[in-house]
Design a protein that fits this description.
The chain is of the alpha+beta class. The chain has helices spanning 32-38, 67-77, 84-93, 96-104, 108-111, 119-135, 154-164, 169-176, 185-199; strands at 4-13, 16-21, 24-29, 45-54, 59-64. It is elongated.
Length: 200
């Protein structure tokens, strides 16, 4: 299993990279996020974290500029019905910090913005990964939980309101993610405030 590659970046286009290591060019499929971070480094030495996917008719190598993105790729492909291409589509649409917030806040609707991701698949991703991300601390430490463009999510509005009041998103997201989406934003905020008060 290839854990990482370090070498000269020959090209970065069309969702793949080519990195030359000891005279051999390795083609790595990747997300638009990783591609955008490495576009300016063509001809220079780079390192990517890799994942090898074995199929009956091919061996695919995936590369990511950040270890966190690789971890989310693995999480996504662990969901039934989500293959490597679908995982790349999601990571191309949402960087890891935004993806963490979408999943923990239960916002499956926004996930459908990724190419090829339907409503049922998005709901399955949220259902299977919400607890894993919350309990296993997969949320990136540098995640930006404010000003994230989440659509059709009352929970995200509650998060914004509470962070404006001075609470950290890391504290309020676990509370809000357990609430019913049928609640009003005001009800969500009140419950979260009561929960925060108990911790003081």
């Amino acid at each position: 299993m290839i854990y990482s590659l370090k070498g000269i970046l020959l090209t970065a286009e069309n969702n793949f990279l080519v990195i030359e290591c000891a005279g051999v060019g390795y083609k790595c499929l990747t997300s638009l996020y990783t591609q955008s971070t490495l576009n300016s480094k063509i001809g220079s030495e780079v390192m990517v974290y890799t994942y090898m996917n074995l199929r009956q008719d091919a061996v695919d190598l995936f590369g990511f500029s950040e270890k966190t993105e690789l971890e989310y790729f693995k999480l996504l492909t662990s969901v039934s019905g989500v293959g490597p291409k679908a995982a790349l589509a999601i990571l191309s649409q949402f960087p890891a910090d935004k993806l963490a917030l979408l999943i923990t806040s239960g916002d499956s609707q926004s996930l459908t913005a990724a190419s090829g991701i339907g409503k049922k698949t998005a709901q399955r991703i949220v259902l299977e990964l919400k607890d894993k991300i919350s309990k296993n601390n997969f949320t990136p430490s540098n995640a930006s939980f404010t000003n994230v463009p989440i659509q059709n999510s009352k929970i995200s509005e509650a998060i914004k309101a509470l962070t404006t009041l001075g609470f950290s998103a890391q504290d309020v997201v676990p509370v809000l993610s357990t609430l019913s989406s049928e609640m009003s934003i005001e009800e969500m905020i009140n419950i979260a405030l009561k929960s925060m008060a108990k911790k003081v």
